[in-house]
Write a structure and sequence with these properties.
The chain is an alpha+beta fold. It folds into 2 domains: about 110 residues, Glutaredoxin (3-Layer(aba) Sandwich), CATH 3.40.30.10; about 100 residues, Glutathione S-transferase Yfyf (Class Pi), Chain A, domain 2 (Up-down Bundle), CATH 1.20.1050.10. The protein is built from 9 helices and 4 strands. β1, α1 and β2 form a beta-alpha-beta unit. α1 runs parallel beside α3, α4 runs antiparallel to α5 and α5 packs across α7.
Length: about 230
């Protein structure tokens, strides 16, 4: 059994997609990031960066005591190695997947995240920041589109690289991107969206989705106002 500390963000969706694809038993432990659940001591004990997702594996493959993992890319690698699924064993194929996983973790996710922040959540509109991150997101979509012209999936066969990237393309309209400008990416996006496991993964997160149109002032302070000297919700 996997305990998944989760909220329905792109990084959270990565893990439910993997779990649904592989059939691993899991239970969701909701972490309401608008209320500050990510700062609770019991969550910080497994995710010291106060970010979800995180997991507790109650039956790790080495037969030892429960294993905790934080950071979505690390969780995908851990679960892929645990199951022997969605990560090739052959050296070059494995490294191809790893490169694109790290590309998503270090590039697509952070840049799209800043795109969302300045376009939707920043208290003041800063045209330079909005243009900067929208343009960088566009560049990264182009990188992905060119790679997908070579093969049906991001790194050859369907893998954790696809699972990592897909949730960050779902909000493409909010990112100011038109998938018609990226035909190979659009073809891939529609294929991933149609996978039954992906449908189940998003359905699993639906009960935790936002009911209102935006974060209120307190939620914004919790999400965006923390520093090293204010490391927890007030």
């Amino acid at each position: 059994m996997i305990d998944l500390y989760y909220w329905p963000t792109p990084n959270g969706h990565k893990i439910t997609i993997f779990l649904e694809e592989t059939g691993l038993a899991y239970r969701i432990k909701p972490v309401d990031i608008g209320k500050g659940d990510q700062f609770k001591p019991e969550f910080l004990a497994i995710s010291p960066n106060n970010r979800m997702p995180a997991i507790i594996d109650r039956a790790p493959s080495d037969g030892g005591t429960e294993a905790t993992v934080f950071e979505s890319g690390a969780i995908l690698l851990y679960l892929a190695e645990k199951t022997g699924r969605l990560l090739p064993g052959e050296l070059r194929a494995r490294m191809r997947v790893m490169q694109w996983l790290f590309w998503q973790v270090g590039g697509l996710g952070p840049m799209a995240g800043q795109n969302h922040h300045f376009a939707k959540y920043a208290p003041a509109r800063i045209p330079y920041a909005i243009d900067r991150y929208r343009n960088e997101t566009n560049r990264l979509y182009g990188v992905l589109d060119r790679e997908l012209a070579k093969s049906p999936y991001v790194a050859g066969d369907y893998s954790i690289a696809d699972i990592a990237c897909y949730p960050w393309i779902v909000p493409h309209e909010d990112q100011g991107q038109d998938l018609d400008d990226f035909p190979h990416l659009k073809r891939w996006f529609e294929a991933i969206k149609a996978r039954p496991a992906v449908t189940r993964a998003y359905a699993a997160g639906a009960p935790y989705g936002r009911r209102g149109p935006d974060f209120n002032a307190l939620e914004r302070e919790i999400l965006f106002g923390q520093t090293a000297t204010r490391p927890e919700a007030k």
